[in-house]
Amino acid sequence: MIGSNLLRVASIASIATFAFGTTAANAQSLVINDEETMIIQAPAAAHLENMDEVFSGWNFRTVETQALQMDDFDNPGMIFVDQAIDQWDTVDGAAGESCGSCHEGGTAEFAGLRTVLPRWDEDAGGIQSMADYINECRTERMQAEAWTWSSSKMTAMTALIGLESRGMPVDVVIDGPAADAWELGKEIYYTRVGQLDMSCANCHEDNYDTMIRADHLSQGQINGFPSYRLKNAKLNSTHARFKGCMKNIRAKPFGEGSDEFRALELYVASRGNGLSVEGTSVRN
Ligand code: HEC
Ligand code: HEC
Questions:
Q1: 130, 161, 210, 270: which could form a disulfide with 20 (CB 3.0–4.6 Å)?
Q2: Which residue CA neighbors atom 3 of ligand 1 most closely?
């Protein structure tokens, strides 16, 4: 599965103080609260020429970390979901509105939304992520301040809304008006950057299921985002994770909420089409 690319990357990696080693994914199934079965392995989308199957990042975590995601009482990310439930009915901004005052059906109105985001949006004339829709409501409809993408309020609200799609397969559209952004995202994914001269694909396509330092490399899927990381004890947005990976290879990261990261988010999401939205995933 890994082939000659490993050798190529390993030689770069040895200079770069990264070392890949082999291991096997923890084979199990992800059933949440003893009732909701997640799709954590699926046939790769047709556009993925170098892979047959796609895997949720959950497969690559330790048994202990996996267990935290199997019950909402144990999932540390759920504290933030509770905070978002309170935020939902909090009046904020000059218009005197709360989310709940307009969205009278509650967050259940958003069932399925997470599976199709990010997506082309005709009104915005570009790719829009969950955070964009939330901020549009905040600035234009509530006359409140926008939340930054990595603020705890934003990640918590995206988690709450995402939970309404838990279990449903990711299904982002990549053609039609979304095609240009998708191509840009793909180009970013395969372009080597930074002092270590590596691309996303070098790690997450050529070397997944190997060890890099103490970390078991996954395919870098985003079906579980926002993701609770044990490392920093908070929810992390997709763009924050992209930024972290770019910094690790000593590249200058794009900004959170930039068009480049929206395009990359669309492309990476499309690599996980078919995997379940996991609500709030737990990672190390
Ligand atoms: C003044 C009324 C109003 C308020 C307040 C409001 N929204 Fe909205 N929201 C709307 C309208 C109208 C739309 C567009 C609906 C559509 O396009 O179908 C929308 C769209 C959305 C969408 C995209 C839905 C989709 O299917 O495309 C999300 C997500 C959302 N709102 C979340 C929120 C959140 C979270 C809050 C609170 C921070 C909030 N909204 C506050 C009126 C409001
Ligand atoms: C030097 C190797 C390396 C490169 C290059 C790299 N990453 Fe990562 N990435 C990691 C490691 C290590 C982790 C943590 C373990 C894991 O989930 O794979 C990670 C995690 C992730 C995750 C979280 C997956 C999950 O299930 O929570 C995403 C998403 C991700 N990377 C995307 C990217 C993108 C996009 C790029 C290119 C901009 C990239 N990575 C480049 C090493 C890398």
A1: 210
A2: 102
